[in-house]
Amino acid sequence: MLIDHLSQQLRQRRELGLERVRRIAEGPCAPHLPVSRPGAATDAPQPMLAFCSNDYLGLAAHPAVVEALAEGARRWGAGSGASHLVSGHGRAHERLEQALAEWLAPLWPEGARALGFGTGYLANLALMTALGDARTTLFTDRLNHASLIDGAQLARAEVRRYPHNRVDRLEAMLAECATPVKLIVTDGVFSMDGDLAPLDRLLALAERHDAWLVVDDAHGLGVLGEAGRGSLAHVGLRGRRLILMGTLGKAFGVAGAFVMADPVIVEWLLQTARPGIYTTAAPPALAEATRASLEILRGPEGDARRAALQARIRQLREGLAALLAAHPGCGGSLPESATAIQPLLIGDNHRAAALAERLRQAGLWVPAIRPPTVPEGTARLRITLSAAHTEADVARLLDTLASSLAR
User: Fold this and answer.
1) Active-site residues: which are they?
2) By CB atoms within 10 Å of each CB, which of 30, 59, 60, 293 scores lowest?
């Protein structure tokens, strides 16, 4: 019986320390917000200091972005009413695609075009399934985001997975590949470890082996590079063989995603990518809010926010290094990461969950990430930082971690 089977599976998840619990944010996305637990409607929300959102530049509640969203709703209404290819593609969507293309134009010497999607997950499914046909081999990093993994599984292409960031292994695979189309697929910033892909070496391989480089820059766009142009700009890359997927719900603070590439590739996606064709277009008000966010992100205020974020990253890493040195028996470790994603590796699922719970009881919201999101034996606290965090916020996290790890 289905219910009995699923109940047994859920019990096993709890016993393995893999149970997931939703919490209810009772305020706008910000470092300080009240949080409730499901089923605790009669309890007062707990004030929390959150280190778990991807609002890296603190733009989700920026007054200019909020006002653009409200004005967009007054002008365009609440919804789009149809898919982009029917009647849902409005002037607001068109302006956003043009603004994104103009912003990122320096990365493509021969010109490129942007195409919007409802989410990053949909955009990656679209890329993998529309480009991954029987003539194609997809070479994918083993630590790619779940949306790229799922998209590759749905594609009709051959899929070859290479060990994380192992360019030597990838080169050997490319050298023996006989399919006419080859796509190297990678995250720009890996979402659970915070490390960067060796994009310069990957693009060199793509050019040497007549391949294309697909980069999911969900966690780099807006945060890294000149004017926030992301991981590709961070390492000074430009080239025709680049295919970029960027999300608009992280550093941009709004929602949605886009793909930018050679105009022929984008037109093919427009004509054939089912996740774009058969879904309702996002509300045009979101496009207006995103354009407002882009103006902030690419200008002087964006530079200031990126500098503030880097200061918090340095503060946290220096503090965690000192903390781990003072508590060598705690079993934690800090992988190399220069981005807003700072994982504190714990290893055991139960220990990671228990540490996250101790932090919650102290008023800090830091999620425990466990398999299958990360490999077995690498459960961790995934600490994410924002330009909206203060020096005092990070100091409080470090102090609380010090007392929690000492227990």
Assistant:
1) 191, 219, 250
2) 30
